[in-house]
Each structure stands twice: as structure tokens, then as C-alpha cells.
Amino acid sequence: MPVLLDQLRRAVGADHVLTEGDLTAYEQDWRQRARGKALAVVRPASTDQVAAVVRACAAAGASIVPQGGNTGLAVGSVPDASGRQVLLSLRRLDQVRAVDPANLTITVEAGCILQNVQAAAESAGFLFPLSLAAEGSCTLGGNLAANAGGTQVLRYGNARELCLGLEVVTAQGEVWDGLSGLRKDNTGYDLRDLFIGSEGTLGVITAATMKLYPQPAARLTAWAAVPSMQAAVDLLGLAHRHLGAGLTGFEVMNQFALSLVARHYPQQRVPLWQDTPWCVLLENSDHESEAHARALFERLLEAALASGCVTDAVVAESLSQAQALWHIRESIPLAQAEEGLNIKHDISLPVSRIPAFVAETDALLAANVPGVRLVDFGHLGDGNLHYNVQAPEGQDAAAFLRTQEDRINTLVFDAVARHGGSISAEHGIGSLKAAKLPHYKSPVALQMMRAIKHALDPKDIMNPGRVLAAPRGHE
């Protein structure tokens, strides 16, 4: 497609159309589960350039794979192996366009690193609460495309709840300016929510207006040992009653997950894990004072110890101690990667059903896959578990994935369905789960989703094969 490549070079500059050299950072996903081949990696620096690229690709019939930080876990942002797809990297769209203190909003471009959005908000005296382990490399556009969650969804909601407006380049190369900072706008269909969570299959998010919040006067973090998952759920109920809206984080981690951190990162001192099957990490954000926050925390932990849902606990005495505790939690995925290839499940369930799901599915996997190791952790406060599966000790992990992944996925997803849950909470569907989605999504819902896709992207050039698998009879 030499004509298309020439058009792309005119649109963004020859230096930003990459066709040669090592393109691994763009063509291989973060988990190294897939490696594709792009026709070209195109790096626009403005919304107008993105629109020009999309128009050129639409005219040539070339499909587009939008990409932010390439930190996704569902293989949704790398090209296929055809060598005919254009990889559209948004990393150069990285500006903070505006902060509106009175409206409590920040408007940023899609390629802005999440950590930089947090820093810009903090420098203006505000909090941008979206926080996740990859925040040093993931981009806001990718967070919105996957409707990212993270550790503070319990209080502030996921990316969708934090977003007030979008700027989007459509599949026809037109620009929709929906960067409203309005909290009320009842003038028809909510186009913003269509694009959030669509994983680049409907259009390209180029900028967003996001909510800001006042900085809390104090943040306290506690680490508690709990005897069971039911005890963790009971502790969550106590935390809601004692802390109210101040409860901004509630993470659960099983013993094996923490053992991997202790094994692969011995410099991190993991508290309490050896003598309990589960640990919980809690955060209390208080808008009054640290003394008030600590008094509430102490009353909560006293009640929890008295009821038996907590067997031991520590409260961070400094910001550095709190950061160290959160670093342990955020190191679990990295430690699991160090242990070897694994099967990830990003699931959501009603919180009340989680203890029964874990007990049932743990036993089911143990019976069907002797020696299987379960790395179970996640955002219990909002019902999102990362229910991950590691190969038995000493078994070849790559062979384990080849022979067992589909079977294990079916066992886990069927159990999720029995308990009224979802097979994807915050990582998206991508290509990894696209073939599975029809088994767990209502046919009516899928029909409406396909209708929306066809209406907005009739040529199917926007990230094809992601979220919605190709219909039978089509490649």
C-alpha cells in the first residue's frame, strides 16, 4: 500500500510513520501473549492529524488499531499478523489542555500518562482518583477505552464515572467535540458512554474532560489478616458502617499471591501473610484531620477484632509505610509474571456471592487440575476479583497454557455465570475473550452491540475482531 503510506507521511510527517526497525514495543502485547505485524506505526501529534490518518485509512480500506501505553491485558491494542493494519499510537497526544478549578475538571489528551494526569491535578491542589498498578505507563485514552477501574472505584467509580466529556475521531475521520464539563446534559443519547469501554472499535478517543476532587486532609492505610473470604466481606461491611464515604480502598489478597511477592521481591516486607489465608488492605481518606481518621480506623479495627473477622492488623504510621503496603499489593501481577506464564481472569460478582464463588471454584479447579495454584486478589470493595491461575509447581507453563487455558477459562466463566457475575470487570474483552463473549452475553445485547458497531463503523476498520468476534462465515 505505497499510496496509503505516502498519505500517512504527509499527514503526520515521515519521521512518525515507522515501518522498519524494532517495533516490538508497539507490535507485542504487555503479557507477551501475542506479536503482530503492522503495515506501519503512525504517531500523530494532534487531533487533526488523527482525523487525517483515519480518513486516509478509510479511503484505502485499511483497518486501524488504536494504542495508548500498550499495557492492556486482553490483547486488544496490537496488530494482527497480516501486515496490513495501521497501528495508531496516541502517545504524542500528551498535553494537559486545561484545569478548571471552579468546575472541578481537567481536560487532557488521550496519550497523557495516567501518573502525569494525577500530578497535574495535584499541582493544581486537587485529586484525580483513578489509580492502578500501570499508572506510570498507561494512558488516559487507554483507560477510557477499557473503562479502567483500579483501587479507588469503591469511592470514586471507574473511568466512566470520572469522565464528563470526550473528543473523538469517528471511523469516517470526522471530529466529535464532546468535551463538555457539564454534569447534566439531557439532550439525547449518551454518546460519551458508547465510546468509553468500546476498546477502540467505534472511534478514536483523542481527549477527555475528567472530574477532579478536593484533596483529603488525611489518608490512612491498614493491613489486616482475615481468616476467610467471608470474614473479608464481613470486614467490608464494618468498614462501610464505620468509615462511610471515607472508605476509598479495600483490596483482598490470598496467601499464595503474597507468597509470590515475598519470593520474587524479598526486599519488600510482606506483613502477616504466613499465618493467614487472606489479607486485606484498607484505605481511609478523611476530610477533617489525621486524628479524626485514626480514631475512626481504631474503632473499626477494634470492632473487627472483637467480631473475629480480623485476627491481626497493622496501621501505617507514615506516608512511606502506606506506600510500601500499596506497593506490595501492586507487585502481585509482577511477581506472578516472574513466576511464569499464567491465566488471568478479571471477573466481577455481587460482593455477597464472592465467598461462595471462591469456595466452589477453588474446589472445582483443584479437582480438575491437580496441583493448580491460584493467585486470587483484587478489588473486593467493588466486587472485582483477579482470579488468576498458575501452572502446578515444576510444570512447563507454556505447555500448561496450550493444553489447559480454554478448559480452565470455561470452568471459571461458567462458575462466574452461575453466581451472576461478568467475565470482564476492568480489563476489557480484546481478542482474548471475543470468542467467549457470545456464551456469556445476552443474544439481544450482542445484537444491539453489533448494530451500534455497524452504524458507527460500517466498513469495520476500527480495531476489527476485538470485543465482537467476526460473525460466522466471515474472517
Provide the fold topology.
Blueprint: H1 2-12, E1 17-18, H2 24-27, E2 38-42, H3 47-60, E3 64-67, E4 85-89, E5 96-100, E6 105-109, H4 114-123, E7 126-127, H5 140-145, H6 153-156, H7 159-162, E8 163-170, E9 175-178, H8 191-195, E10 203-211, E11 213-214, E12 218-226, H9 229-243, E13 247-254, H10 255-264, E14 278-286, H11 290-307, E15 312-315, H12 319-339, E16 342-343, E17 346-348, H13 354-368, E18 373-379, E19 384-390, H14 397-418, H15 437-440, H16 443-456
Parallel strand pairs: 2-4, 3-4
Antiparallel strand pairs: 1-2, 5-6, 6-10, 7-11, 8-9, 8-10, 12-14, 12-15, 13-14, 13-18, 16-19, 17-19, 18-19
Helix pairs in contact: 1-3, 9-11, 10-12, 13-14
Throw out a few tags for this protein.
about 475 residues; eight-stranded antiparallel beta sheet; 3 domains; Uridine Diphospho-n-acetylenolpyruvylglucosamine Reductase, domain 3; globular; Alpha-Beta Plaits; alpha+beta; five-stranded antiparallel beta sheet; Uridine Diphospho-n-acetylenolpyruvylglucosamine Reductase, domain 2; single chain
Notes on the structure:
- This protein is an alpha+beta fold.
- The chain contains 16 helices and 19 strands.
- The strands form 4 sheets. Strands 12, 13, 14, 15, 16, 17, 18 and 19 form an 8-stranded antiparallel β-sheet that branches. It has a 5-stranded antiparallel β-sheet with strand order 5-6-10-8-9, with helices on both faces.
- Strand 18 and strand 19 form a beta hairpin.
- Helix 10 crosses helix 12.
- The two termini are 21 Å apart.
